[in-house]
């Protein structure tokens, strides 16, 4: 057997024994404790001891979604950050990039996720969707179509949906602050 | 033939004259690339054949090749772990299995097959997960070879072997040889835990699983894969609610297949089949027997060189790309200082039993050799004090007044993260 031990450079290197905490857990600790969120975003942990399941509430202070509070659930699995967190929008909202099941079309949550991204980048990405809804990546086709065709009507629909209104037969949840 | 029958009962001294004639050409005399510690002749042969204990993780495409190679090159005490059972689709390349074995555990069938074919070799199977075993189990081996298909299992065994390294005990350092294949591509690497770059160091090199933009699969499907993803990502949770999709359940695959087929028909897309459905949801990349053979050979070659010191071993990453011709390249993958498994600093600290968490944090901030600002602390997955987010800061604030001793046992670890640290710092706490 090769004598590997002699390759240990010095005593200092040999002292590097690592903890039993999993890499995913340490990474989540790092991500969460270094979150730098504006006042428009708040996290909530139903069980503060469980870092892997929590919600994020976004309350945009500008744009057409101003006045609403939008809650997203975050579920992080043991393979983080190899896999992105699973994010869903909890209330039914009228938004071109969010479908009625709460699925969100945000590239970094799926095809463009990379381990160098973190929870902060996902949260900032989500907030951006409320400032700049994007009609080119529709998940709610009706909403996207409206945004493209008639911006005034779209904004009117957003306001109405946020009050718990019914648009084209779909009942939306009241999300006013 | 008659001799083989007699020898088939794992007789311990099954070596016949000339059995290892070819391998012995390497072991009987030093060559130009042998390690200075190489014990030519009986010494090295005895270690390889009577003492060396090797663990093979995975008894699938790579595992079958690895087990056969190891047994035939003279390793005699081999252990194998696999949690899977044999599927009929394995039989084209997993040559230790026969049609009668379908449904049986891979580890057990593979072990029996090797023992019946290679006299004198003991293969000890374990049918279950690697996570079932503790540090003592992994401690008994000299070497570990992985032929896995999962990132998660690799991360686990890598972290386990890195954690196993005890500065006081040279035996605790177990070389890890990791093989992997994806179609015509493959890699073999030698990981010396805490010395070379580890699996986690290279996590960012992984190809991410193919994912399509969710809006494409929802609105503008063009490929059969888009229809299958639509069925599994959007329709399954919508229709089946909280029921979890089990990709090993044929009924679930059947449901997805039907939903995807209907979708494909609507958009005039051809090519949705049952096996494509299964392939997409399980993220299956077709396995190529010859890629497995090359990578397994490379892994076993490294195991042999490390176990015998007969030649310089791989430093530390061999990649093979067989998609256009046969290209291979070997390079030294660099260790990362900010690797969450093998990077980071570790520090022994001795503090008073009376110290509060607050006092400990004050010490961390003051110490010149650490220089952390706003550290967050946890131990064994439990929070001690978090600087953010506000709710967690508030929830953990009462701990500041508590004695460290109440939260961390003597000799326990504290994980410290802070923006000023590359990744984290581990404190090993002793009390006076």
Automatic annotation (TrEMBL), chain A:
It catalyses: [E1 NEDD8-activating enzyme]-S-[NEDD8 protein]-yl-L-cysteine + [E2 NEDD8-conjugating enzyme]-L-cysteine = [E1 NEDD8-activating enzyme]-L-cysteine + [E2 NEDD8-conjugating enzyme]-S-[NEDD8-protein]-yl-L-cysteine. Keywords: ATP-binding, Nucleotide-binding, Transferase, Ubl conjugation pathway. Belongs to the ubiquitin-conjugating enzyme family. Residues 23-167 form the UBC core domain. The keyword Nucleotide-binding applies. The active site is at 105 (glycyl thioester intermediate). Gene3D superfamilies: Ubiquitin Conjugating Enzyme. One of its GO terms (molecular function) is ATP binding. Its EC number is 2.3.2.34. It is an enzyme of class 2 (transferase). The lineage of its organism: Eukaryota, Fungi, Dikarya, Basidiomycota, Agaricomycotina. Pathway: Protein modification; protein neddylation. This is NEDD8-conjugating enzyme UBC12. The keyword Magnesium does not apply.
UniProtKB/TrEMBL annotation, chain B:
GO terms for molecular function: ATP binding; NEDD8 activating enzyme activity. Belongs to the ubiquitin-activating E1 family. UBA3 subfamily. GO terms for biological process: protein neddylation. Residues 349-432 form the E2 binding domain. Pathway: Protein modification; protein neddylation. Signal peptide: none annotated. Its EC number is 6.2.1.64. The keyword Chloroplast does not apply. It is an enzyme of class 6 (ligase). Gene3D superfamilies: NAD(P)-binding Rossmann-like Domain, Ubiquitin activating enzymes (Uba3). Chain: B, domain 2, Ubiquitin-like 2 activating enzyme e1b. Chain: B, domain 3. The active site is at residue 215. SMART domains: E2_bind. GO terms for cellular component: cytoplasm; nucleus. Transmembrane segments: none annotated. Keywords: ATP-binding, Ligase, Nucleotide-binding, Ubl conjugation pathway. Pfam families: E2_bind, ThiF. It catalyses: ATP + [NEDD8 protein] + [E1 NEDD8-activating enzyme]-L-cysteine = AMP + diphosphate + [E1 NEDD8-activating enzyme]-S-[NEDD8 protein]-yl-L-cysteine. InterPro entries: E2-binding, ThiF/MoeB/HesA, ThiF_NAD_FAD-bd, Ub_act_enz_dom_a_sf, Uba3_N, Ubiquitin-activating_enz, UBQ-activ_enz_E1_Cys_AS. This is NEDD8-activating enzyme E1 catalytic subunit. Catalytic subunit of the dimeric E1 enzyme, which activates NEDD8.
């Amino acid at each position: 057997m090769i004598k590997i031990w002699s390759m240990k450079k010095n005593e200092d290197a040999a002292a590097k024994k690592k903890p039993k905490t999993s890499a995913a857990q340490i990474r989540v600790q790092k991500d969460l404790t270094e979150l730098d969120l504006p006042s428009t975003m708040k996290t909530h942990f139903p069980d503060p001891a469980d870092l892997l399941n929590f919600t994020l509430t976004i309350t945009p202070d500008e744009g057409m979604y101003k006045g609403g509070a939008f809650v997203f659930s975050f579920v992080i699995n043991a393979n983080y950050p190899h896999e992105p967190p699973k994010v869903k929008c909890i209330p039914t909202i009228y938004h071109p990039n969010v479908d009625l099941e709460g699925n969100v079309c945000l590239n970094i949550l799926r095809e463009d996720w990379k381990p160098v991204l973190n929870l902060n980048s996902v949260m900032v990405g989500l907030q951006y969707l409320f400032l700049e809804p994007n009609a080119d990546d529709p998940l709610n086709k009706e909403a996207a179509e409206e945004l493209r065709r008639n911006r005034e009507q779209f904004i009117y629909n957003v306001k109405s949906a946020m009050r718990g209104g019914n648009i084209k037969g779909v009942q939306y949840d009241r999300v006013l602050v | 033939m008659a001799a083989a029958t007699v020898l088939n009962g794992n007789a311990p001294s099954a070596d016949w004259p000339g059995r290892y004639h070819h391998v012995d050409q390497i072991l009987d005399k030093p060559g130009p690339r042998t390690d200075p510690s190489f014990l030519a002749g009986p010494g090295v042969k005895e270690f390889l054949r009577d003492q060396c204990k090797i663990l093979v993780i995975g008894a699938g495409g790579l595992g079958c090749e690895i087990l056969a190679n190891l047994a035939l090159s003279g390793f005699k005490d081999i252990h194998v772990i696999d949690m899977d059972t044999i599927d009929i689709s394995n039989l084209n390349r997993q040559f230790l299995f026969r049609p009668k074995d379908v449904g049986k555990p891979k580890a057990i069938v593979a072990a029996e097959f090797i023992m019946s074919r290679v006299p004198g070799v003991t293969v000890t199977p374990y049918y279950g997960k690697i996570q079932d075993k503790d540090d003592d189990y992994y401690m008994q081996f000299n070497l570990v070879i992985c032929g896995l298909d999962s990132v998660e299992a690799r991360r686990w065994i890598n972290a386990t072997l890195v954690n196993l390294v005890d500065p006081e005990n040279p035996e605790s350092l177990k070389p890890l040889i990791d093989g992997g294949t994806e179609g015509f591509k493959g890699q073999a690497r030698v990981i010396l835990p805490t010395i070379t770059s580890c699996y986690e160091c290279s996590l960012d090199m992984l190809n991410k699983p193919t994912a399509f933009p969710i809006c494409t699969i929802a609105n503008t499907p063009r490929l059969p894969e888009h229809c299958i993803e639509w069925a599994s990502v959007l329709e399954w949770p919508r229709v089946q609610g909280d029921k979890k999709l089990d990709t090993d359940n044929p009924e679930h695959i059947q449901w997805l297949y039907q939903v995807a087929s209907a979708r494909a028909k609507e958009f005039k897309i051809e090519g949705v089949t049952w096996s494509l459905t299964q392939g997409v949801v399980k993220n299956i990349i077709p396995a190529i027997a010859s890629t497995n053979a090359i990578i397994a050979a490379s892994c076993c070659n490294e195991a042999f060189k490390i176990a015998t010191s007969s030649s310089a071993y791989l430093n530390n990453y061999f990649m093979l790309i067989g998609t256009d011709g046969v290209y291979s390249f070997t390079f030294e993958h660099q260790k990362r200082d900010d690797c969450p498994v093998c990077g980071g600093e570790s520090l022994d600290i001795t503090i008073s039993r009376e110290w509060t968490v607050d006092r400990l944090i004050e010490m961390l901030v003051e110490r010149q050799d650490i220089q952390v600002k706003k550290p967050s602390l946890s131990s064994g997955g439990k929070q001690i004090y978090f600087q953010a987010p506000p709710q967690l800061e508030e929830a953990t604030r009462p701990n500041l007044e508590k004695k460290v001793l109440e939260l961390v046992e003597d000799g326990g670890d504290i994980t410290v993260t802070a923006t000023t640290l590359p990744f984290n710092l581990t404190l090993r706490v002793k009390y006076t």
